[in-house]
Amino acid sequence: MGRKRKPLLRDLVGNLKDTVSLTKAALLSNPNTSMAVLRATSHDPSTPAHEKHVSALLSLGHGSRLTASSCVSAIMDRLHNTHSPSVALKCLIAVHNILRRGSFILQDQLSIYPTAGGRNYLNLSNFHDPSTPESWQLSSWVRWYARTLEQLVFTSRIVGFFLSSSSSFSYKIKNDKSTMEAEEEKVTALSNAYLLKEIGSLVGVVEEISKAPDYDVLKGNGLVLEVMRLVGEDNLMTQKEILVRLMEMRERLGCLSFSESVELVCVMSRLKNCKRLLMFLTLDEKLRSGDLLLGLVGEMEEKVKAGEGFGEETRLVGRGKRSESARLGGRELSRSVDLVRFSSGRMETWADSSCY
C-alpha cells in the first residue's frame, strides 16, 4: 500500500503547491503573466497543458516587450526552481511552443536568455528526481529534452531562423515549390565554409534527437508523447534542411579544398552514425526524407573518396608528396572562402524529386 500511496501523496502535494502559487500570483504586480505560466506548467504528472492554457501563455507575446520578458523569466524561474520532472517537462514544452508558435518578441526574449547566451543556458544537465522509478526515468527525458532545445536554439542562430517555427515548418512540409526555390537561392549564396558550418550544426540537432531515452518504461505518458510529437516534427524539418544543403554541396564537389572535403566526410559520417535517425518519423516520411537523405550521403561519400571532392589545386598537390596534415586522419580547419553564388543544376533535380 505504501508504494502505491506515495505517488498519490506527491500529486496531492503538487496540486496544493499549484493552488498556493496561483494565490500568490494573484497578488503580484504581473498576475496575468504569473498565472498563465503556472497554469501551463501545473503539477499534473502525465497530462500536457490544455491548449487554452498554452494559447494564454503565447498571447503574452502580443503585448509589450516588458510583458514578453516577464513571461520568459517566469518560465525559466519555474524551470530552475522545480524538483518535479513533470513540471520541468511542461516548462520545456512551453519553451518549445514559444519557438514554434510564439510571437517575434517572445522568441527574441527567449533567444537572448540569459544575456550571456551560451550552449547550456537551460542548465539542466544535473536534473534528477530519484523518488520513484517513473520520476527517475522522466528526469532523463528532462535532461535530454533540454539538451535538444539548446542545440535547436544554437543551430537556429546559425541558420538565421527558428527551425521549429510554424511558418518555417508549414512551407517545408507542403509542396511549395516557389518558396523552396527561394530558400535554395539563399543556400547558393553561402560560402563553402559557412555552408559546412550550417550542415554541421543541423547534424548536431539530429545527433541530440537520436539520443532520446528509452520510451518503453513510460508508454502512455502524455507528457512524453507530446515531447515526441514536437521533437519528431523538428527532426523532419532538420533533415529537410540538411538535404537542401547537401544537394547544394554536391554541386560544389569539384571546387572543394582538401580540408573542406575532409570536413564534409566527417559531417556525413556523423549523420550516418545517428542510429535512431528515423525514430520519430512515420513510415511515409521515412521513405520521403530519411531514405533520400541517407542515399545522398552514400553517393557523396563515394564521390569524395574517389577524389571528386578535391579542387584542381588540391589534386595537383595530391599527385606529389602529401603532408601528414593532408591525410584523412588529420583534420584541418576549413579556409575562409569569400561569398560567391554558384551556378547549380540542383533546382532541376529538386523539381523532379518527389521528396516534398
Automatic annotation (TrEMBL):
Top-level taxonomic group: Eukaryota
Protein name: Uncharacterized protein
Organism of origin: Persea americana (Avocado)
